Amino acid sequence: MTNWRLPFTQIHLTGRELDYIRRVMESNHFSGDGPFTKQCERWLERATGSARVLLTHSGTAALEMAAILSGVGEGDEVIMPSFTFSSTANAFVLRGARPVFVDIDRRTLNIDPQQVAAAVTSRTRAIVPVHYAGEACDMDALEAIAREAGVMIIEDAAQALLSTWHGRPLGGIGTMGAISFHQTKNVAAGEGGALLVNDPALIERAEIVWEKGTNRSRFHRGDVDKYTWVDVGSSYLPGELIAAFLFAQLEDAESITARRRAIWDQYHAALEPLEQEGRLVRSSSRGNGHLYYVLLRSIEERTEVIEALRRKGIFAVFHYVPLHSAPAGMRYGRTHGTLSVTDDISDRLLRLPLWPDMTGDDVTYVADALAAALGAPLQAGTFER
Ligand SMILES: *Cc1c(COP(=O)(O)O)cnc(C)c1O
């Protein structure tokens, strides 16, 4: 076991979590859809402009709900980047649909709208943009493509809480959006998520899917006199203990985000000399300060750098194994185009530790360790993304 001087991530505790958890323990409402769940949902509706937010036990669960509500099934195709987490695709594969993996833009690492347009077929039912690192995808271009094709947009906004596209909150733009509160995300509850139902026509069914296929939500509002099984669904709610913890986090979401952005800026300044010397390429855009990555020259160099940082107690990680080259991605999905950017970037990308309570000294320590690990520039001139 390595004793990390700088772990990859750490939750920032606001100080109110235990107080809120104690309130749950005193209230005797431990199951889902209680007062803290409702407070989290109202907070998220205000922050994103979504018509109805449903708290879930993970971002994955929110994507699975979106896939059910989208109505996709056998023979349908859903266009998404290959450069993403398994859950983006898995949610649709569970419905019998086929993910169609397309390449990303080399600068933003977000889905390339030109590739999306070219991948549309008569089988396409949805486009799933992933706002990587909290940086917005080109939503104007994607909305135009979706409108033309008559398909819906479901945003994987797992990393994108409090980020915007020209002033529009991410997750709140598509027909639906999914947010994650996993330990690694900006606002965290260990495991947790939210489905943003932006189309009011889907709200009633979303509540049913959320509550094991029952009309419990309508029953509790007094709209119906029987509480019964009416549709497919599952148990997608978190318990109130999680919601209580999450609400304490959400109350400080703005300051947590500001703090992450400040650390992002510190990294960006500290690594500028290394970029000028052509030894690495820095992150492209700050977004919500979710993550800071650097691009190295090769997968071999990245392996060496990870090991050199580890020896100094710095936990740096990479992702993703592109879904189109993962065993399940090959079995359940298909590709459109060459995906050469995805293959190249996923070999060279390295994520640096970033959490709200990191200090400026921590950032300097990482930057110095990177400088030492990279050695001298291999050749004159710069290398590009
Ligand atoms: C974190 C993440 C998910 C999954 O969220 P969980 O809450 O861990 O289930 C899905 N998509 C992307 C892009 C993510 O970063």
How much of the residues is beta strand, in percent? 5-15%
Helix- and strand-based class?
A: alpha/beta
Mean pLDDT across the residues is 96
Q: Work out the number of β strands.
A: 13
Question: In the CATH classification, which architecture of the largest domain applies?
Answer: 3-Layer(aba) Sandwich
Based on CA atoms alone, the radius of gyration comes out at: 21 Å
Number of helices: 15
Largest sheet: 8 strands, mixed
For this structure, what is the CATH homologous superfamily of the largest domain? Type I PLP-dependent aspartate aminotransferase-like (Major domain)
What's the CATH class of the largest domain, please?
Alpha Beta
Compute the separation of the termini in Å: 34 Å
Parts with pLDDT < 50 across at least 5 consecutive residues: none
Strand order of the largest sheet: 1-9-8-5-4-2-3-12
Oligomer: single chain
Question: What is the succession of H and E elements?
Answer: HHEHEHEHEHEEEEEHHHHHEEHHEHEH
Ligand species = pyridoxal-5'-phosphate
Shape type: globular
Number of domains: 2
Q: What is the CATH fold-level name of the largest domain?
A: Aspartate Aminotransferase, domain 2
Description:
By secondary structure, the chain is an alpha/beta fold. The protein folds into 2 domains: 17-251, 3-Layer(aba) Sandwich (Aspartate Aminotransferase, domain 2), CATH 3.40.640.10; 253-374, Aspartate Aminotransferase, domain 1, CATH 3.90.1150.10. It is 40% helix and 13% strand. It contains 15 helices and 13 strands. It has helices spanning 17-27, 35-48, 59-70, 86-93, 113-119, 139-149, 203-210, 216-221, 240-251, 253-270, 272-276, 299-311, 327-332, 340-348, 360-374, and strands at 52-56, 77-81, 98-102, 124-127, 152-156, 164-165, 168-169, 176-180, 193-197, 281-282, 292-295, 334-335, 349-352. The strands form 3 sheets. An 8-stranded mixed sheet has the order 1-9-8-5-4-2-3-12, sandwiched between helices. A 3-stranded antiparallel sheet has the order 10-11-13. Helix 1 runs antiparallel to helix 9 and helix 3 (59-70) crosses helix 7 (203-210). The longest helix is centred in the C-terminal third of the chain and has 18 residues, at 253-270. 48% of the residues are buried. The site of pyridoxal-5'-phosphate (PLP) has 14 residues, from helix 3 and helix 4. The site of pyridoxal-5'-phosphate has 14 residues, from helix 3 and helix 4.
